[in-house]
Amino acid sequence: MFRKDFGLMLYVADVATEKAFWSAAGFVIISESEMMGFDTFDMKPHADSTVTITVFAKEFIQQVSPEVADNVPSILFEVDEIEALHKNISALTDTCSPVTEMPFKTFNFASPSGLYFAVKGN
Length: 122
Known about the structure:
Layout: E1 6-12, H1 15-24, E2 28-35, E3 38-44, E4 51-57, H2 58-64, E5 75-79, H3 82-92, E6 106-110, E7 116-121
Parallel strand pairs: 1-4, 5-7
Antiparallel strand pairs: 2-3, 3-4, 6-7
InterPro entries: Glyas_Bleomycin-R_OHBP_Dase
Organism: Streptococcus danieliae
Protein name: Glyoxalase
């Protein structure tokens, strides 16, 4: 049986830049390590989250699992205070869209590696 918690993997060009970005966005960095000479880290959107996102160097993934190196997940984060998060993310990246109301409060943004994420407000 599958467990209730699970992990997502992101493959990026610059792990250090991604770590700085996600830390500034409010994510909790829960661990950092090195694999075969490549840095990696685990983060959570909230300390109590059951979802862990592991960030790997794309170059590392191309060496160990080339068949998945170009896979890109579509991730939707849910938040209580969308306007406050939008203000924070807008200060971190030029790729942050305005908050829209339809079909629900939402915006999207790209991380430094150009991966896009969506945010849904309550």
